[in-house]
UniProtKB/TrEMBL annotation, chain A:
InterPro entries: 2Fe-2S_ferredoxin-like_sf (IPR036010), 2Fe-2S_ferredoxin-type (IPR001041), NADH_UbQ_OxRdtase_ferredoxin (IPR054351), NADH_UbQ_OxRdtase_Gsu_4Fe4S-bd (IPR019574), Prok_molybdopt-oxidoreductase (IPR050123). Keywords: 2Fe-2S, 4Fe-4S, Iron, Iron-sulfur, Membrane, Metal-binding, NAD, Translocase. It comes from the Bacteria. This is 2Fe-2S iron-sulfur cluster binding domain-containing protein. It comes from Chitinophaga agrisoli. CDD domains: fer2. Its cofactor is [2Fe-2S] cluster; [4Fe-4S] cluster. The keyword Metal-binding applies. It is found in: Membrane. The keyword Translocase applies. Pfam families: Fer2_4, Fer4_Nqo3, NADH-G_4Fe-4S_3. SUPFAM superfamilies: 2Fe-2S ferredoxin-like (SSF54292), 4Fe-4S ferredoxins (SSF54862).
Automatic annotation (TrEMBL), chain B:
The gene is nuoI. It comes from the Bacteria. GO terms for cellular component: plasma membrane. The keyword Kinase does not apply. This is NADH-quinone oxidoreductase subunit I. [4Fe-4S] cluster 2 binds at C84, C120, C123, C126. GO terms for biological process: aerobic respiration. It comes from Chitinophaga agrisoli. Belongs to the complex I 23 kDa subunit family. InterPro entries: 4Fe4S_Fe-S-bd, 4Fe4S_Fe_S_CS, NADH_quinone_OxRdtase_chainI. It catalyses: a quinone + NADH + 5 H(+)(in) = a quinol + NAD(+) + 4 H(+)(out). Its cofactor is [4Fe-4S] cluster. It is found in: Cell membrane.
Length: 360, 169
């Protein structure tokens, strides 16, 4: 009886939930789920020590606890603040929080370039969603934005430091998933940047996961670079026997071509299980995978456009009518169309396609 | 029998009178209307010589725009294709190589860009979706063809001429 843990009663946006002591407000909100979950750009439940940097998860604590009912004087970062018994938190019910979040988004976007049309992360970008939901329409920033050159970290990862919001997720990933940490943050404040020591190539079996944890398009897959937009690809759940990782992935396919392999992400954009680089970068043949079925994508996401569920394909009756003969095609589409040429296999090209790939 | 509408008029089935049987007053009445139209404003134009002005919101054939320096504006972001309700637009993107900066405005560009004019419904959503001011609908028709072949418009058909090349010619 004495061992039974006392559960803390918390009220978030007037919804009560009982959580274990030591839970953060963000995780308590995630136990309720729905609209009241504060957005998080830097907190990642699978990475120890993450959180507290981006300030997008700010909430208002209207009642500190049962013992001390005074409200907290300032907005607190919900990913770092643990709950107290009887705490009352306001997230979407507090205009102050909404206003502060708008300001935080504006700060995050200060140096972020408006290159979503070029960026491969567009369509699945946390910052894009955050800016869409909480951001202002325009920018008030009038000064020069900081810019960096793009760097290839290793063969498969591209770093666009200009797009980085310094969430430190990739640093934690590299620190906790691999046995040797090779990149981190250099410089301070305005000059801080993610970098490897003297551009040392990151080669590790699990380093590809920094692409998945990156909330923006700062770290992107070079094997997928500019190949296709994510919303034109069809995500399917697939697995393979892998001796390094769980082998459970999402394949981003177009027809039979696998354009990209990522880990499975939950509704908070966090991967369910980390995958190894062999699965991610080097296994792009459809025969190597066992396909489980289409991945469920939130229907408000642009990725789910054009993916209709439960469609019934009408039976092709032409061959029956023609006594088993195939219809004669009068026009080969490749004789008039230049796209999807059979001799150019974009998914097989190592890096991004260039002009000479199309000049063949 | 009950009439189906309230606007039913009973047909006058009385035999014609002598004046009506002459038909001349009715013919004169009809010819009056005919000749009146000679002096009215014509509803038609002599098409190839004379053309009607387009309305300011007319949406015709697409063009792909260039910037002031003649570089292609399109970055193959795919927003026109995703906005297209007829799924007429396809594209393939490529990365700009060093030395191609005078050809393409951004580091990514459309290596292939095709619009199937048979599918296109000229709704103008692509023009609205474009974040780079690259695609515009002009005041021209897609010309007619005898075959389906000529209706897939690639980049050479869509791109406007380079303003710098024009000066030299």
């Amino acid at each position: 009886m004495a061992d039974e843990k006392k559960l803390f009663k918390v009220k978030i946006d007037n919804i009560s939930v009982e959580v274990e002591p030591g839970t953060t407000i963000l995780n308590a909100a995630r136990q309720i789920g729905g609209d009241i979950v504060p957005p998080a750009m830097c907190y990642y439940s699978k990475l120890q020590g993450s959180g507290g940097k981006c300030r997008t998860c700010l909430v208002k604590v209207t009642k500190g606890s049962e013992a001390d009912p005074r409200p907290m004087p300032k907005l607190v970062a919900s990913c770092r603040t643990t709950v107290m018994d009887g705490m009352e938190v306001a997230n979407i019910t507090s205009p102050e929080v909404q206003d502060a979040r708008k300001g935080v988004v504006e700060f995050l976007l200060l140096n972020h370039p408006l290159d979503c049309p070029v960026c491969d992360q567009a369509g699945e970008c946390d910052l894009q969603n955050l800016g869409y939901e909480h951001g202002a329409d325009g920018t008030r920033y009038e000064f020069k934005r900081r810019t960096f050159d793009q760097i290839d970290i290793g063969d498969n990862i591209k770093l666009h430091m200009t797009r980085c919001i310094l969430c430190y997720r990739c640093v934690f990933t590299a620190d906790q998933l691999t046995n040797r940490r090779e990149h981190g943050i250099l410089g301070r404040g305005e000059h801080a940047e993610i970098s490897t020591y003297i551009h040392k190539a990151l080669d590790n079996d699990f380093i590809g996961n920094v692409i998945d944890v990156c909330p923006v398009g700062a770290l992107t897959d070079r094997t997928f670079r500019f190949k296709n937009r994510v919303w034109f690809l069809k995500p399917v759940d697939a697995h393979r026997n892998c001796d390094k990782c769980c082998g459970k992935t999402v394949l981003w396919m177009r027809g039979d071509e696998i354009f990209r392999v990522t880990a499975r992400k939950d509704k908070y954009g966090e991967v369910e299980e980390f995958i190894c680089d062999t699965c991610r970068f080097d296994t792009k043949e459809a025969s190597a995978w066992t396909i489980e079925g289409p991945r469920k994508i939130d229907r408000h996401s642009v990725i789910s456009q054009g993916h209709y569920v439960g469609t019934v394909k009408p039976k092709e009756i032409l061959t029956d009518v023609l006594d088993g003969r195939q219809p004669r095609l009068l026009m080969d589409i490749h004789s008039v169309s230049e796209v999807n040429r059979p001799e150019i296999d974009l998914s097989k090209i190592d890096g991004p396609a260039h002009s000479d790939d199309f000049r063949k | 029998m009950q009439a189906l509408t309230t606007r039913v008029k009973p047909v006058d089935r009385r035999p014609l009178t002598f004046v009506e049987r002459l038909y001349i007053p009715s013919i004169l009445k009809g010819m009056m209307i005919t000749f009146k139209h000679i002096f009215k404003k014509k509803a038609t134009v002599n098409y190839p010589e004379e053309k009607r002005p387009f309305s300011p919101v007319f949406r015709g054939l697409h063009i792909l725009n260039r910037d002031e320096e003649g570089r292609e504006r399109c970055t193959a972001c795919g927003l026109c294709a995703v906005a297209c309700p007829a799924e007429a637009i396809t594209m393939e993107a490529a990365e700009r190589k060093p030395g191609e900066e005078n050809l393409y405005r951004e580091e990514k560009y459309a290596a292939r860009y095709e619009i199937n004019m048979l599918r296109c419904i000229f709704c103008g959503f692509c023009e609205e979706a474009c974040p780079k001011d690259a695609i515009y609908l002009t005041e021209t028709f897609a010309p007619a063809h005898y075959e389906r072949k000529g209706f897939i418009y690639g980049k050479p058909d869509l791109l406007i001429p380079d303003p710098k090349e024009k000066q030299t010619v």
